[in-house]
C-alpha cells in the first residue's frame, strides 16, 4: 500500500489533494487501523479502527520531514477513511509561521522551535508539543563525475558556503582541485536544514553566501547536482539514499586531523558523522491533542507502524523510549 514518497517529482503538484483521493478509496472494513477515540491514552498500539473517526488534519513545514509524514498520512488515511490529512513542504520556518497563524495543526521541523516562535504562540494562548521522530544526517553531495572531492573538512565547507565567500573555482578550495567553477545548490532560507547547516558549518545561523540555487524541494537540488559535473549541494540523508546512483556523498572531516566519515545509518545513529547528524521533529498544537482524529494520527505516527515507515523512507528511527515519551504526552 505504501508508495515511495521520496519520488516527489511525480506527486508534488498533487500533494495537497492526495489526501482526499486516498481518503475516498481507503479500506472501509477490517480492524487494522490507528487509534480511534482511545488514541490519547491507554495501551492501544494503533491498530484498532474507530468507525466514527472523522475530521481534517493540516500539516506543513520541513521538506526533510515531509517523506515520513506523507508516508504516515497515506497509511493512516487508508484505514481511517473519514479523516483527510494534507501535508505540505513549505520549509520549517513556514510551518511554524502557519501554526502560529492557526493555519495548520502540526508543523514538521528539521530544527527545534525558536524562543521567538514560542513567544508568538504564547501571545495567541497557544503552545506546541515537541516530538522528535527520527534522526537525519545532512549530506553534502557532488556529481558522480567528480573524482576529486571525495572528502572535505568543515573548514573547507565553511570557506565555500560562508557569507561573502570568495570561492568561485574548485581550485580556490584546494590548489590541486580543478580550475573549474563550483555550481552550488542548497535549501532555501526558510528551511530548517539551511539553518542547521549554516550554524554548524558557518558558525552562525542563517549566514550563507547567496549566489547559489536554492529550493525547498530537495528533488530540485538532486536534479541540479546530478546534471552538472562541477556541482555541490546538501540536503537530508534520505534524499541521497534514494538517489545514490546519481550522486556521490562527500565524507566529512570535523577538522584537518580527524578521520573522514561518510554519512550512513550507523554513523548518523552513533553521532560519528559530525557535525551534521541531527534529530528531526513534529510539533502539534497542544490544544489540538484534544481532537480524536489528531490524537489518533499522532499515536499512529509514534507506533511500531510509524517507526517502520521512518526506516522505509530512509531515515533512522529513534530508541523506543523516545517514541514512548511522545505517546505519554498524549495522555
UniProtKB/TrEMBL annotation:
<dbReference type="Pfam" id="PF12849">
    <property type="entry name" value="PBP_like_2"/>
</dbReference>
<keyword id="KW-0813">Transport</keyword>
<comment type="function">
    <text>Involved in the system for phosphate transport across the cytoplasmic membrane.</text>
</comment>
<dbReference type="InterPro" id="IPR024370">
    <property type="entry name" value="PBP_domain"/>
</dbReference>
<feature type="domain" description="PBP">
    <location>
        <begin position="47"/>
        <end position="305"/>
    </location>
</feature>
<keyword id="KW-0449">Lipoprotein</keyword>
<dbReference type="InterPro" id="IPR011862">
    <property type="entry name" value="Phos-bd"/>
</dbReference>
<comment type="function">
    <text>Part of the ABC transporter complex PstSACB involved in phosphate import.</text>
</comment>
<comment type="subunit">
    <text>The complex is composed of two ATP-binding proteins (PstB), two transmembrane proteins (PstC and PstA) and a solute-binding protein (PstS).</text>
</comment>
<keyword id="KW-0732">Signal</keyword>
<dbReference type="InterPro" id="IPR050811">
    <property type="entry name" value="Phosphate_ABC_transporter"/>
</dbReference>
<keyword id="KW-1003">Cell membrane</keyword>
<protein>
    <recommendedName>
        <fullName>Phosphate-binding protein</fullName>
    </recommendedName>
</protein>
<comment type="similarity">
    <text>Belongs to the PstS family.</text>
</comment>
<keyword id="KW-0564">Palmitate</keyword>
<feature type="signal peptide">
    <location>
        <begin position="1"/>
        <end position="19"/>
    </location>
</feature>
<keyword id="KW-0592">Phosphate transport</keyword>
<keyword id="KW-0472">Membrane</keyword>
